[in-house]
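User:
I study polymers; will you set down one protein's sequence and backbone structure tokens?

Assistant:
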Amino acid sequence: MREFDQRFEEYMRGHTSEASRWMHVVGMSAAAAAAVTTVRRRRPKLLWTVPAAFFAFAWSGHFVFERNLPVGFTDPGAAFSGDLKMIWMMATGRNGQLKELLARLEQEAAAAEFTEDAAAAQTAADAGCPRSLDHAA
């Protein structure tokens, strides 16, 4: 279960925009409607509309609001499971939990960046290099 949680956290790093998350919900709703229509009309040739409906909205969310590539381009398995979990959470009113997760991930990233910067500064100091131009004189 921990591996799924880690993959979901990585998935959520690509879904920081609430508008993009809602576009995924709308896309899933459109895909469900397309599936129902295809079955009711007994038109299997229309099955292509199911993924097309979802991806039209979800990818628009990435390109317009996130300005990134969908996770599915690099990790389709994580994208599928992440989409289902995120959409379910959004549809059941738990967007606040997603916001809290994103805030925690942002804090962790900032702390890691600070630690890396401090380590680089220490390495430079150990090598006798000034940390900044202010201390060079």
Notes: Residues 95-126 form the longest helix (32 residues). The chain has a mean pLDDT of 90. The CA atoms of residues 79 and 133 lie 45 Å apart.
